[in-house]
Amino acid sequence: MCFKEVMIVKIFRMTVLLFCAILLAATRGNSKNMMDGETQSQNDVTITYLQNDGVLISDGTHKVLIDAIFNFASGWINLNAAEAAKIINAQAPYDDIDLVLITHNHGDHYSPGAVNTHLSNNANTKLIAPPPVAANFSGTQIVNINPARGQSQALTVNGIEVEVLHLRHFDAFGNDFSGVQNFGYLVKIGGKNILHLGDVDMTVQNFQNFGLAQKDIDFALIPTFNAPAHFMTSHRDALNSQIQPANIIALHLLSGSITSIRQQVNSLYPGATIFTTPLQSVTITVTSVSNEEQRPERFSLGQNYPNPFNPTTTIEYELPLDSQVMLQIYNLLGQRIRTLLNQSQSAGMHSVVWEGRNDLGQTVSSGIYIYKIQVGSFTETHKMVFLQ
């Protein structure tokens, strides 16, 4: 085909997609609105992946950095130099950080000089870390804390509730890390409970003292780099029995083994979010109604918005009862390409964001996709259009 013919075909394809999107939008109900007179509260919590097991957690008011301030760690997933410099120098969006949390004293989780620079550029930031890490710093920004192994300590710092858990570090690469002080952090932010476990040894014995299953963990961030050591069914069973998180986020992947590790994570933790690329993020909004009488009256799935979309879209749904929810995305051939949710959720209005990626973390091609919710015997589907 000549160049002119190729352009005509491309324009025709885009016109068809846009036409489909207009038709879909015309059938979209006003799923975002509650009944007249009802009040609601809404908090977005975004977890942004930075590097290795480092994340930024924000609810629009508070910001927390965990294991994110270091220059470079060979073998792990790293930020580009310019973005890493923003973190170190406390430049937007890494300014006004309320808390810097460091899990343990290993160089792939923090760099003393980098952390010192960040703290000096952000005078209101507080730092919590195990004593061997905290010993590298001084001043009023340091919060000294030292719970015994198997114990925890709760505190509120800069308006954020944090529970610090002293957990055993796993052994890896033939090394005995049992002497390493590894802190896990349960951060309560934006009405959500985010649990970052550091380099935790995922066993029942390591978790059983903390009563985490009764603390409604919304996200558990777990290390998944040392295949097969981190992919034992006993680890999954310990996580599910002792923590029971609503969502699992897998991070701390070896940069040279991403494909194989992703496959194992998908097999052991279906529906888990897998962070493999810096600046990936996940956002979940839970809208709670003011009282029992204002719960949704029926199960429903709303039309996504925006639609068409690029790069992200929001899908809303309503649950009249506490329920086990499955939300999946299919292509027009009926092939499942992404499991967004597979978890127990409370009654109310919920939403989840899809960033246009499949279960392998790959950006999907432009086209029409079907998303389906299943709650017990209830199912509902809608179509949406992704445009690159």
Topology:
Blueprint: H1 3-26, E1 40-51, E2 54-58, E3 63-66, H2 81-88, E4 99-101, H3 112-120, E5 126-128, H4 131-134, E6 142-143, E7 152-157, E8 160-168, E9 181-189, E10 192-196, H5 204-207, E11 219-223, H6 233-242, E12 247-251, H7 258-268, E13 273-274, E14 281-289, E15 300-301, E16 313-319, E17 323-330, E18 336-345, E19 348-354, E20 367-375, E21 378-386
Parallel strand pairs: 3-4, 4-5, 5-6, 10-11, 11-12, 12-13
Antiparallel strand pairs: 1-2, 1-14, 2-3, 7-8, 8-9, 9-10, 14-19, 15-16, 16-19, 17-18, 17-20, 20-21
What does this molecule look like?
With 388 residues, the protein is an alpha/beta fold. The chain folds into two domains: 3-30 and 295-386, Sandwich (Immunoglobulin-like); 43-282, Metallo-beta-lactamase, Chain A (4-Layer Sandwich), CATH 3.60.15.10. The chain has seven helices and 21 strands. It has helices at 3-26, 81-88, 112-120, 131-134, 204-207, 233-242, 258-268, and strands at residues 40-51, 54-58, 63-66, 99-101, 126-128, 142-143, 152-157, 160-168, 181-189, 192-196, 219-223, 247-251, 273-274, 281-289, 300-301, 313-319, 323-330, 336-345, 348-354, 367-375, 378-386. The strands form three sheets. It has a ten-stranded mixed beta sheet, with no helix packed on it. Strands 7-8-9-10-11-12-13 form a seven-stranded mixed beta sheet, with no helix packed on it. Strands 18-17-20-21 form a four-stranded antiparallel beta sheet. The longest helix has 24 residues, at 3-26. It is globular, with a radius of gyration of 22 Å.
